[in-house]
Amino acid sequence: MLVSAKEMLTKAKAGHYAVGQFNINNLEWTKSILLTAQELNSPVILGVSEGAGKYMAGYKTVVGMVNGMLEEQNITVPVALHLDHGSYEGCFKCIEAGFSSIMFDGSHYPIEENVAKTKELVAICNEKGISLEAEVGSIGGEEDGVVGMGEVADPKECKAIADLGVTMLAAGIGNIHGKYPANWQGLSFETLDAIQQLTGDMPLVLHGGTGIPADMIKKAISLGVSKINVNTECQLAFAEATRKYIEAGKDLEGKGYDPRKLLAPGAEAIKATVKEKMELFGSVGKA
Ligand SMILES: [Zn+2]
């Protein structure tokens, strides 16, 4: 059964580790992530962007697939199904479809409007037992066609949003979606520290986890980050393994064209990436 992300993140913040959010794109992605979480006895958050939701034939299809898999594959670790960077309308659709967690990305609205819309969603999510992530200060890079400039959030605005009763808070601290450019300045730990001072127990979320050096990840966790989003890294691992299989001509040998064989190396590569991240984040054995 899907659970809200509240309990797993409260425990993570108190225990000084982070739970990974791994974005899914299809059945192979979902299966690889869930089986790895179960094997490592780790809580996990499955992220679904609005684009990926559309690609997977709609939110209800996603909920059906994930719920079926939890049951048929005997997944007993805590699993949250989370809308990633949701629009105001998208949040309502996912709540209706049966998601257990949502992110309302109101970072592009003026702060007053972000506050008003977040407040409304807090009331609905509390009533339904769904966890809610809010964002302050847009996160750099490209996500579903939306390009952010990689702002650093204002800690006072973070407190204002945290005080509305959201479950977890994503704040821009120089992090970027996708691959990091060679001239990247690194994370602003000063900002992260200031945000944690003002928001206390609130679990903080680090987006754009791909390519942030391990020591920076560990430092961010020590400063209150309890949820880390990983997306691009699984995509790169999947593509590389699939490329190797085809370049080696394996799809031309016997029944190597069978999709169950063709997609297997990519699925294994996702498992390896998820395992590596769960070990780095410290969530292994915390289910
Ligand atoms: Zn993000």
The count of strands amounts to 10
Coarse morphology: globular
Bound molecules: zinc ion
Q: What would the average pLDDT be, to the nearest integer?
A: 93
Order of strands across the biggest sheet? 1-2-3-4-5-8-9-10
SSE class = alpha/beta
Q: List the total number of helices.
A: 12
Query: Which parts are unreliable, with pLDDT below 50 for 5 consecutive residues or more?
Result: none
Total domain modules: 1
Describe this protein with a few key phrases.
single chain; 287 residues; alpha/beta; TIM Barrel; 8-stranded parallel barrel; two-stranded antiparallel ribbon; 12 helices; globular; binds zinc ion
Could you give a short description of this structure?
By secondary structure, this protein is an alpha/beta fold. It has 12 helices and 10 strands.
Description:
With 287 residues, the chain is α/β, with parallel strands linked by helices. The protein has a single domain (6-232, 270-281), classed as TIM Barrel, CATH 3.20.20. The chain has 12 helices and 10 strands. It has helices at 6-15, 27-39, 50-55, 59-72, 88-97, 111-128, 155-162, 189-199, 214-222, 232-247, 259-262, 264-281; strands at 19-23, 44-49, 79-86, 101-104, 131-136, 141-143, 146-148, 168-171, 204-206, 225-230. The protein has an 8-stranded parallel β-barrel, surrounded by 9 helices. The chain has a two-stranded antiparallel sheet with strand order 6-7. β9, α9 and β10 (225-230) form a beta-alpha-beta unit. α7 packs parallel to α8. The two termini are 14 Å apart. The site of zinc ion has 6 residues, from loops. Keywords: Lyase, Metal-binding, Zinc.
